[in-house]
Amino acid sequence: MTDLSRAIAIKPIIKYPREAQVGKTYLMTIDLQPEKEFEWQYEEEEYPIYCTVDSNLFNSQPVGEPVVVLHRFGGSYGESKFLLTTLSKQAEGRIEISLVNKWGIPIKTLKLEGIQLIPSTKLEQLDTNKEVSIPKSDTFQTDIQRSANPLTVGIRNLYNSLRRQLKTFENQYLACQAADIQALRTEGISSQTGIFTPLLDEVFIPLQLASSTGQSFNSSARQTLPDESFSIWDCIANASREPVFRKMSILAWGGYGKTTLLKHIAYVYSTRRYQQYKVQKHIPVLMSLRKYQNLLAQDQAPDLIELIVNYHVPSLPGGADLQVASEWVERILQKGNAIILMDGFDEVVAAQRSAIANWINQQMLRYNKSIFILASRPKAYHEQVTSDRLQIDMQLWVKDFGAEQRKAYVENWYLTQERYAHGGRNTSDVQHRAAQSASDLLTQIEARQELSDLAKNPLLLNMLVYLHQHYPGAELPKHRAELYREICQLQLKDRPATRKLNSSLTESEAQTILQMLALEMMRKRQEQIDQSALLKQLTTYLENQGVRIPAQDFLESVVQISELLVEREINEYSFAHFSFQEYLAATQIVQAKQENLLYEYFSDDWWKQTLLLYATQVNPNNLVREAMNRGATDLAYACLQQTTRQIEPALKAEIEVLVKTVQTLRYQDLEGYLKNGQWKLADTETYSLMITTLGKEEGRLFSPEELINFPCEELRAIDQLWIKYSQGKFGFSTQKQIYVECGAILDGRYPGNQIWRRFGDRVGWRINDEWITLDETSYEFSAPLGHLPRRCFMLNNAGLECYLYSRVHTCTS
């Protein structure tokens, strides 16, 4: 309910007759506009004000509903109109206008004095520009107590009726934005017979995030977040109090749900469900940076207002019919009532990223009261040129899907499928069938470590769900490459719709052509390709395969039926997800026996996943040896990790020798840095060694389970090098001892704030009662005892060290 004690600073604009003739009828209009300094302080989005008229000179009759509605996001709509008929013959009269709220409580009375009667021989005059202004010091003060005014019931009914009838631009825009994102489509998986596309809010599971505690934001901002993990809504809720939360980046590798998370945020706001997350209302704008990259990279790029008015809104379903007022857009941006969601910074071509980053920085600075959230893969985000970097301090990292998240998603997905299959029923039998299917899949996932590892990635979990639904009873794929192979087979061969593919083109030939395309795009470092270049490539591939199909026909079939290739924008194509491009390129190299093509890319991150997907499909011995010879020991180690569970027994002994050799070589750089006292480089290398030991990309996070089960041999090797070359001053063992001295127990649990702060003080991670950032870490030998290593903890929230110290104790006891 509105706090009725608050004031509303508004300016009335009244058009009325200053001179009148007896028996004549005049039109009076009343409009109310918020003053420039007006600040909305009400819970409601709209505040209606009703008008009544009393006069000793006129008989008044309202025309339509005599109400003006003030809006939270600026301006007002509606206009009170009255027909005034002159009754008296007196020379002068007055008009009194009473303003009341929706409960019938008087707000203010306006008096218009000195209205003159003129002889009938004169033409009546109507001053249509007459304005009555309230001084800025004056306000309309609402009454705290509800009145027993007899108008109350009638006015409330009138207000409710009016709200049902009026459709504001905001409501129409939100409906268009919601329509654009309401369905949850999995990239690379097209519609299947018997498998329904769920709505976003039916299956979405909130992602858990972690912040980089090495960032330059103050202690008070950091303390507003939970210690271990949190959701995006925790951050948005803090935006009004802590400016650092108004500029955020969400970082994650492919398939971790960055785009889906932005859609979720936009959908919640578009459907007005934000209150359940305890956040203030905002108007969402969700846009793809890839879509507008050419436009925004221009020297005379449009600003955010123009982009929204002329490009974003018209691109939405039904948006072309909306008449967008740039003043409305400017007001919500300036007032901090907008939340701008920018997806796919990594999908912008590298040559344009600096220009796009500069454009984003300008908009964030200009509209610094609104919230900006950007999503990107870590590599593209961190490769920015220092002078043209995105000015975003709050970096949020998406954490792996945990067991509870997997369970919730699978159960929601199957319940949705069964409801759709049974005409929308949600009866006990439908729920039982859904629970059985979900239980069968979850049992397989949790019983097999390799499936649990795959299911940490939301995209791969979604693929597992689709395969489980489409092939009931079949064994699920054990490895990532097998999963992609099964999906490609499903999309190109097993679906009934694929029968529509040209009869002279087999599933194998279709995939081979896509493989050739994927490999060529990898070599050219392309994620998108325009239609003319694509058709030229396809024509060559089809001719090489001896298939007589026009390239245009093949393209249309693959796009419409398999959806492995999609048209992102007009005449611009890409694979449904970049990981499909990587898999198909790797498979082409396998089938063409072109392993030597990969050797030149051992140190190129662009090729890393393609290399790993290749390694899972072949005997990796030659690849591993070549990688070691070229100094790519981390890659060699990662390739061995990908293959150890599927290696043939005859090759096991040889692989074990390779593993030991690689492990020895892996620590050479760390040892060199420590020996030379290059503590900062050693700190960075420690994190790299640890994250790759777990088979993860740099930039990913450690989970408690991973640290509490970290391989002892690798942990001891890293720790012993630190202890040796720092003479016991630095290292995990040194930190563990200090941790225990501060009162902690090595039980793998967070010790509590008091002990944790005491530990931070001892090792120099806290100065003057505030946690220091990574940039403030000392890399001098004079640093406090136990100060290093530190970087490996900085991508997680405080407290994960307790898991590692428990593991150190176990591995060194």
CATH superfamily of the largest domain: P-loop containing nucleotide triphosphate hydrolases
- How many domain units? 5
Distance between the termini: 63 Å
What's the β-strand tally? 23
Largest sheet: 6 strands, mixed
Mean pLDDT: 82
Helix content: 40-55%
User: Which residue ranges are poorly predicted, with pLDDT under 50 across at least 5 consecutive positions?
Assistant: 1-6, 121-155, 161-167, 213-217
CATH class of the largest domain, named Alpha Beta
Reading side by side through the largest sheet, how are the strands ordered? Answer: 3-11-10-5-7-8
Specify Rg, calculated over alpha carbons: 33 Å
Residue fraction in strands: 5-15%
Q: Assembly state here? A: single chain
CATH architecture of the largest domain: 3-Layer(aba) Sandwich
Classify the fold: give the CATH topology of the largest domain: Rossmann fold
Q: Total helix count?
A: 31
Helix/strand structural class: alpha+beta
Query: What shape does the CA trace take?
Result: globular
